[in-house]
């Protein structure tokens, strides 16, 4: 059996390999040697330059035949004579090169003189690191903020020892807002024109946090099943020699070897980064002091109820809504959910007495006046005003209107049934897609935006849909049941009542859907939300008087223009002894439809909308005057301010009255008013930007309390969408802690992008350090 090599043998072999590598590198000339000698020789006299010619070149000339050497000397003399007689002297050429722009984005075809000039001058003059990088601003799809090039891109931090090295090859183009590789652009030629760092420039500043699966089926480098984490590391190793060297040395060594590529290290990094995001959010919320909270629940793929917690607080640039965590819950009782919420706030240092608002849906266990979650939270903090979710309230308005009469219920059953009939067969669906630009949509019990899309598709594709149904009904190759269903739907579309309902609901749902989308904005304020709901009252009232208009639009779809006559025999009411002998008036089919269906539907919409708006009256009365502060008289401001102080005696001082009067006068002098944000947000930003919080301290507090009020739990619903991505069918056994960390990084990717990776690397290094400081 062969003996194992000793430690001395291993060290000797290692020194030998290092010496061979150094010897090999010594044979490779450096890049500077190609133009450094030329630059130096150009500054010497001709005789010195000839004297400094290398010996190998002299020897090569001596070895040449006399005839060839004489020919080369004659050619060289001719070239020198041609240059001497040229109109452009060396000084003129240098002056011409000095005029060449240092913006790599404007470089065209690079000739030899330009290449030599910039090779001597270096990349320092082309980097533009002192630029403001305004032209590099890019806004990507799905993001509400802009990304841009920064100075940090020009510095590389070593991933192990933390040393910083300057990227001298990276150059910023002020004209295009892109970055280029100096050496690749100068010497690349046509070989690398396909890369963005040479041809068009690089400007993708986006780092997406997509919530994708990290681990794979194995942890083998080079395996196609090793997951996204190791796959991305393999990709980066192709461009990072240090990482490539680390993978060659330590990858696939198995257990017992430290490689920092295992799933354990990956999970520790996920935990570290997710916790950093949550700590940042909690730190911001504590600094802002006042916050609002919203909770909601949904079952995940493993049939476990997840309670999402979202808070809203105010930063100097305005309000933000942040996701905090998912928490498992066993029961849907108000006591259980409230205890989970209050315990989480306490464990993370958020004082519930600073809670100034809470927004949930209208379920009884959430909104109950005496035993709901909002009532329990109010016992802990009496200033935590309950604001029902505006989107949920709007959905309930439409739901109640549909259920108010049988005609509306039948119409939406027809819309959903038509979608099911055409979509359950690929043949029928393809025939529909070939005719219509908008395909039919199914209905959702909670999302009324889908009803708006479904009715819109029906109205715009009315003729085409009916033609498809008629073709299916006449197709002898179809089953009898299919032909009968198609004929039934076609007959239903040929009824004037169906066409009137479709045109009327299309108009109404369009307004409801647009309002609902605006209410889902995380930055929407309370006054804006209540104003949007109030504007719907006038819109629906206007629709009540448009029956004739909708009827004419329906007749264009159903040319016969006749209502379906009542087929059943009318009931004869028994007369009382004291009644007269006058005959009862019989309504025509048109009057019956208008009175018993259309007007009932519209009136129920108005009644439900006014009923839901009463839930916002108290809080709107308290803060509503802020949006029209500059138009109020001094007496009005005094009354409104005193009411506000009495509502929040522990937050606002009596001096708020005088501050608001002065602040109103100050706001009247300000010319710039943003049309893209509410008046209250404009006031708050003005206070922050001009540093006037010390001048108007109570005004700033009042605006901060108002802006932190949450009017919708749409952010919680969005977190459920991410929950389905992060914890999908292939990751149904995910631990709760890992789920929260991945969800935090995916949902709050803006916060993650703003964090300093250096701090996280230091925290990871401290956690993995094996040496103990004595």
**Quaternary organization:** single chain
N/C terminus separation: 46 Å
Total DSSP helices:
33
The gross shape turns out to be globular
What is the average per-residue confidence, as pLDDT, rounded to a whole number?
Answer: 81
Rg, nearest Å: 38 Å
How much beta, percentage-wise?
5-15%
Main sheet: strand order? 7-6-5-8-9
What's the total count of β strands?
Answer: 9
Helix/strand structural class: alpha/beta
Share in helix: 40-55%
Q: Are there runs of 5+ residues with pLDDT below 50, and where?
A: 31-90
Mind summarizing the main beta sheet?
5 strands, mixed
What is shown here, in short?
The chain is of the alpha/beta class and 774 residues long. It contains 33 helices and nine strands. It has a five-stranded mixed β-sheet, sandwiched between helices.
Present the secondary structure layout.
Blueprint: H1 7-27, H2 33-41, H3 46-51, H4 55-63, H5 66-84, H6 90-98, H7 112-121, E1 155-157, E2 164-166, E3 170-173, E4 178-181, H8 182-187, H9 227-237, H10 241-250, H11 263-288, E5 291-299, E6 305-315, E7 318-328, H12 334-347, E8 355-358, H13 364-367, H14 373-380, E9 385-386, H15 390-402, H16 406-423, H17 426-435, H18 448-460, H19 462-474, H20 480-493, H21 496-519, H22 526-544, H23 547-557, H24 589-613, H25 617-623, H26 634-647, H27 656-668, H28 679-689, H29 697-707, H30 714-726, H31 736-747, H32 749-754, H33 757-768
Parallel strand pairs: 5-8, 8-9
Antiparallel strand pairs: 1-2, 3-4, 5-6, 6-7
Helix pairs in contact: 9-10, 11-31, 12-14, 15-24, 17-19, 18-21, 19-20, 21-22, 21-23, 22-24, 26-27, 28-29, 30-31
């Amino acid at each position: 059996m062969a003996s194992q090599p000793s430690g001395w043998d291993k060290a000797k072999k290692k020194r030998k390999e290092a010496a061979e590598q150094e010897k090999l590198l010594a044979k490779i000339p450096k890049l500077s040697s190609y133009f450094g000698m030329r630059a130096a020789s150009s500054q010497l006299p001709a005789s010195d330059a000839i004297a400094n010619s290398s010996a190998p070149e002299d020897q090569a000339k001596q070895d040449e035949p006399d005839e060839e050497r004489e020919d080369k000397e004659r050619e060289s003399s001719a070239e020198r004579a041609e240059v001497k007689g040229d109109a452009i002297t060396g000084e003129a050429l240098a002056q011409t090169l000095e005029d060449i722009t240092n913006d790599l984005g404007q470089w065209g075809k690079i000739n030899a003189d330009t290449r030599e000039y910039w090779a001597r001058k270096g990349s320092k003059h082309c980097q533009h690191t002192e630029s403001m990088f305004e032209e590099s601003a890019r806004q990507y799809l799905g993001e509400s903020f802009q990304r841009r090039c920064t100075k940090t891109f020009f510095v590389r931090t070593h991933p192990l020892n933390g040393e910083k090295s300057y990227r001298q090859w990276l150059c910023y183009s002020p004209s295009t807002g892109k970055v280029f590789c100096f050496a690749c652009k100068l010497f690349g030629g046509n070989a690398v024109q396909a890369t963005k760092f040479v041809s068009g420039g690089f400007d993708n500043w986006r780092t997406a946090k997509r919530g994708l699966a990290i681990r794979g089926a194995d942890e083998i480098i080079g395996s196609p099943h090793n997951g996204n984490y190791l796959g991305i590391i393999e990709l980066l190793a192709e461009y990072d020699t240090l990482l490539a060297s680390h993978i060659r040395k330590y990858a696939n060594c198995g257990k017992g070897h430290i490689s920092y590529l295992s799933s354990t290290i990956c999970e520790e990094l996920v935990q570290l980064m997710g916790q950093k995001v949550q700590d940042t959010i909690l730190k911001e919320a504590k600094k802002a002091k006042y916050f609002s909270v919203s909770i909601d629940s949904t079952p995940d793929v493993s049939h476990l109820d997840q309670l999402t917690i979202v808070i809203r607080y105010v930063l100097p640039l305005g309000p933000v809504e942040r996701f905090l965590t998912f928490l498992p819950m066993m029961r849907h009782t108000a006591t259980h959910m409230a205890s989970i919420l209050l315990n989480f706030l306490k464990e993370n240092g958020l004082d519930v007495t600073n809670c100034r608002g809470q927004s949930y849906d209208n379920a009884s266990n959430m909104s109950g006046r005496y035993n709901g979650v909002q009532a329990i939270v109010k016992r802990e903090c009496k200033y935590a005003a309950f604001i029902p979710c505006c989107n949920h309230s709007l959905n309930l308005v439409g739901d109640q209107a549909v259920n108010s009469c049988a005609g509306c219920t039948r119409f939406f059953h027809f819309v959903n049934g038509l979608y099911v009939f055409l979509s359950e067969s690929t043949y029928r669906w393809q025939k529909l897609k070939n005719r219509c630009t908008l395909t039919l949509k199914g209905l959702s019990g909670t999302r009324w935006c889908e009803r708006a899309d479904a009715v819109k598709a029906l109205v715009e594709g009315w003729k085409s849909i009916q033609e498809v149904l008629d073709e299916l009904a006449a197709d002898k190759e179809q089953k009898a049941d299919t032909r009968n269903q198609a004929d039934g739907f076609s007959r239903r579309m040929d009824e004037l009542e169906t066409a009137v309902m479709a045109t009327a609901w299309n108009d109404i749902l369009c307004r409801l859907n647009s309002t609902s989308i605006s209410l889902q904005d995380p930055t929407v304020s309370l006054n804006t939300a209540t104003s949007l709901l109030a504007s719907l009252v006038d819109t629906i009232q206007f629709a009540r008087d448009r029956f004739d208009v909708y009827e004419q639009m329906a007749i264009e779809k159903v040319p016969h223009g006749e209502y379906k006559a009542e087929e059943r025999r009318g009931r004869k009411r028994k007369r009382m002894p004291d009644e007269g002998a006058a005959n009862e008036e019989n309504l025509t089919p048109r009057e019956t439809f208008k009175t018993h269906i259309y007007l009932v539907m519209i009136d129920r919409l108005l009644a439900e909308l006014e009923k839901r708006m009463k839930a916002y009256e108290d809080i709107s009365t308290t803060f509503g005057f802020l949006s029209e502060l500059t138009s109020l008289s001094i007496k009005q401001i005094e009354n409104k301010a005193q009411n506000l102080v009495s509502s929040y005696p522990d937050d606002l001082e009596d001096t708020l009255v005088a501050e608001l009067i002065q602040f109103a006068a100050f706001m009247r002098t300000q010319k710039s008013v943003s049309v893209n944000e509410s008046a209250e947000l404009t006031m708050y930003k003005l206070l922050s930007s001009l540093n006037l919080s010390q001048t108007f301290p109570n005004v700033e507090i009042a605006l901060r309390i108002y802006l932190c009020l949450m009017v919708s739990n749409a952010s919680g619903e969005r977190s459920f969408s991410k929950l389905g991505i992060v914890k999908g069918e292939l990751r149904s056994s995910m631990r709760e802690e890992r789920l929260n960390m991945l969800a935090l990084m995916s949902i709050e990717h803006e916060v993650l992008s703003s964090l300093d990776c250096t701090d996280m690397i230091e925290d990871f290094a401290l956690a993995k350090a094996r040496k103990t400081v004595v």
